[in-house]
Amino acid sequence: MLRTQFEDDLNKLHNQFYSMGTQVSAQLNKAVRAFVSHDRDLAEEVIVGDFEINEQEKKLEVQSLEMIALQQPVSGDLRTIVTVLKASSDLERMGDHVASIAQATIHLKGEERIHEAEEDISLLGEKVKSIVDASLNAYIQGDDVRAREIADQQVIVKEMNHEIENKILEAMRENAETITTGKEYLLTLVYLERIVGYAINLCEWIVYLKSGTIVEL
């Protein structure tokens, strides 16, 4: 009976974690759309949504700690709860960077845009979202092989990032009116790369769950 209750609680924890992750992914999609379409209202919606993500992280933290304190899990079960505890913190940080992209959209209102970079940022945003989604799915499936494959994709993001950065810097050199804009664009690239970094952290937690060893992917 106690074991059944524990497993139910663990399933709820997983489901809440996945729900939080899908919300972060949806927020990322909105933030990038807002950025490239100059949609201030959508950007403000993302910023408001970040508070909800923060609250979800707090709830997961409380539930995880309660399960550790009250049910005193051992071995694999303890590892699972600790993973949710740590990985939900990574999701919350992803959400913070997503909100920062939305803030950049608001800062850019009325500024000279660099249109040739915006299409590329949109594509980069799609790539980043696909990595986040794949990481969440690998987590739910407990697929450590897939987690390692996903981690390899960070190289593609770095390459895309570098190409877009060069376009932005070139535009800033050619037109001084884009310097303020360029800074926000460059920061947005940093935010997207950091989101990928936290998605890779999630992949590392998946490997840890399977092997009990913390690895760097």
UniProtKB/TrEMBL annotation:
CC terms in the record's Gene Ontology section: cytoplasm
Cellular localization per UniProt: Cytoplasm
Domain PhoU: residue ranges: 19-104, 121-206
Record-linked InterPro entries: PhoU, PhoU-like_sf, PhoU_dom
Main location: cytoplasm
Keywords: Cytoplasm, Phosphate transport, Transport
Highest taxon, organism lineage: Bacteria
GO terms for biological process, alphabetical: intracellular phosphate ion homeostasis; negative regulation of phosphate metabolic process; phosphate ion transport
Family: Belongs to the PhoU family.
Role according to the record: Plays a role in the regulation of phosphate uptake.
Quaternary context: Homodimer.
Identification of the protein by name: Phosphate-specific transport system accessory protein PhoU
Organism: Lactococcus fujiensis JCM 16395
